[in-house]
Specification:
By secondary structure, the chain is mainly α. Helix content is 49%, strand content 11%. The structure holds zinc ion. The site of zinc ion has 8 residues, from helix 6.
């Protein structure tokens, strides 16, 4: 399965590497190589990092802490203290370096610095009272995203990921219902 970056923030995108959190969890980061690939695909993070098992484990802990805080924020309840400490501690670490080149931005650093940047992004996002965080309207998705749309009317994390799937399912359900009506006949 491919990674998607539709949440509007790298911290939320990291949290969303677990799909279907309330059902049968699907974890897209099953080994360090998955994390290396995720990092290289995520905008604003170093292109080439290597993940050992210890850093991989700390990335997974950070991910769960970010998710917990984002969910606390969506549910408008106080932040869970342990997750708060985990995210703040990681955010305090050294960050990747940035460089302007003719080819654009070059970000370099190791995986630890990439995680610090992701944690810092979570801190800035969750501290922003104007940031509208929502959970995707497709029940099984459970992705939390930042709604930047005018009037904050966005319902899905992404149209391709969820919006079109829900609409297609509703269409199929309507067709099934009208087929069933047809079988029963006009008076049935
Ligand atoms: Zn979704």
């Amino acid at each position: 399965m491919n990674f998607v970056f539709v949440s509007g923030d790298p911290a939320l995108d990291l949290a969303a590497t677990v799909l279907s959190r309330r059902g049968e969890r699907i974890d897209l980061l099953s080994e360090p190589a998955d994390l290396e690939r995720w990092t290289s695909l995520c905008d604003g993070l170093p292109d080439r990092v290597s993940a050992d098992s210890a850093t991989f484990e700390s990335a997974l802990s950070l991910r769960e802490a970010i998710y917990r805080l984002a969910l606390d924020r969506v549910l408008e309840r106080p932040f869970e203290p342990e997750s708060l400490k985990a995210v703040n501690d990681t955010a305090a670490g050294p960050l990747p370096s940035v460089e302007l080149t003719d080819a654009g931005l070059r970000v370099s650093g190791d995986l630890t610095s990439a995680l610090s940047l992701v944690a810092r992004s979570a801190v800035l996002l969750l501290a922003d009272p104007g940031a509208r965080l929502k959970e995707c309207g497709r029940v099984d998705c459970t992705r939390i995203y930042l709604d930047r749309s005018r009037g904050a009317r966005r319902t899905w994390c992404g149209m391709d990921e969820c919006g079109n799937r829900v609409k297609a399912a509703a269409y199929r359900a309507r067709r099934r219902a009208s087929a069933a009506d047809g079988e029963r006949g006009p008076n049935g």
